[in-house]
Amino acid sequence: MKKLIPIILLISSIGIMGQTFYSTPFAHTYSIVARDPVTGDIGAGVQSHWFSVGSSVIWGEAGVGVVATQSFVNVSFGLRALSLLKKGLSPQEVVDELIKSDEGRDFRQLAVLDTKGKSAAYTGAKCIQPAGHITGENFSVQANLMINDKVWGAMEKAFKNSKGQLVDRILEAMDAAQKTGGDIRGTQSASIIVYKGTASDKPWEDKLVDLRVEDSADPISEMKRLVKLHHAYDHMNQGDLYVEKNEMDKAMIEYKTAEAMFPDYEEMKFWHATTLVNANKLEEALPLFKEVFVKNKNYIELVPRLIPSGLLVADKKTLEKILSQAK
Prior knowledge:
The protein has helices at residues 5-14, 54-57, 76-86, 91-100, 151-161, 166-180, 219-244, 248-261, 266-278, 282-295, 298-306, 316-323, and strands at 26-27, 29-35, 42-48, 58-61, 65-72, 108-114, 119-123, 132-136, 139-143, 189-195, 207-213. By secondary structure, the protein is an alpha+beta fold. It folds into 2 domains: 2-217, Glutamine Phosphoribosylpyrophosphate, subunit 1, domain 1, CATH 3.60.20; 232-326, Serine Threonine Protein Phosphatase 5, Tetratricopeptide repeat (Alpha Horseshoe), CATH 1.25.40. The protein has a 6-stranded antiparallel β-sheet with strand order 8-9-2-3-10-11. Strands 1, 4, 5, 6 and 7 form a 5-stranded antiparallel β-sheet that branches. Strand 2 (29-35) and strand 3 (42-48) form a beta hairpin. The radius of gyration is 24 Å and the shape is elongated.
C-alpha cells in the first residue's frame, strides 16, 4: 500500500472525477470525539497509518467543542467547525454547513461534538469501505478504510463501558478499534487531546492533555505508555505545588505515587530526594540520591546548583553527605 500513496496524493491534488482536493492529507483512520458528563471535559482521539495524524485530524477548544475531520481530510473543517460552534450552531448544523459547502463531500468524514455532549457526524458515500460512524450522547465514533465493519461499533461499546478520566476512556475506545482490526494498512501514528468543557480566564490551563505518537510500529501501545506517564507527571506537578505551599508530607506522597508508576525514571526520584532534604529527612533522601547518581551522573553536578536558587536547603555538611552517594 505504501507504494500507492504518492499516486493517491497526486490524484488528490489534481482532483478525483473532476473534484479538487488541494493536496489534502490522505488520513484514513478511526477516531472518537467525546465528553465526560461528570467533569464536562471534552476530547478526541485518533489513530491512522499516516504520519502525524493528530496534526490534521483532531481539533478542539475549551468551552467550545471538539472535531474530527478525516478520510480525504479537509483540514479547514477543524477551525471552521469550532468557529461555527462559537456562533451558536448545533453540531448537526455545523456538519450540514461544512459538508454543503464542500465539493469533495462524498470523500469526507466529519464528526463534531459540543460542550453539552451533543454530537453529529457524516460519512461520505465514496469514503473507502468499510466506513461508518455512530453518534450518541457525549460521543461520536467514526472510521474508514478499516479491515472490517466492526471497528466503530467496538469503539462505541468500549467507550460506553469505560471508566476513569476522559483520556483513559478515549484510549480504551482506540484500543478496542485496534483489537477489532483497525486500519487495513496497519498502524503509524496516534493522538489524544482533552480540554476543559468550560473555558477559564487562564486559557493556558484549559488544555488538559495533548499527546502524540508521530511515527511508530505500535502507536496504541506507545500511547498507553504516554497516558500512564501523563498521569505520573500529574502527581509530580501536584507534588511541586505542595512544595510551593511548604506542605512537604503531601508533596512526598505525590512523588512516591509517581515513582511507583515509573520506578526507572530517575528524575522523579531526584526531586523526591530533594524534597526530603528540605523536609529535614536527609537519611531518607540519601538512598534515592544514590540510585539517581548511578543512573545519571549529571545529577551530581546539578545538586549544588540548586542551593543558590533555594530549591535545595543544604549546608556544606549536608551537601557533602549527598554528594558522597556518588562514590
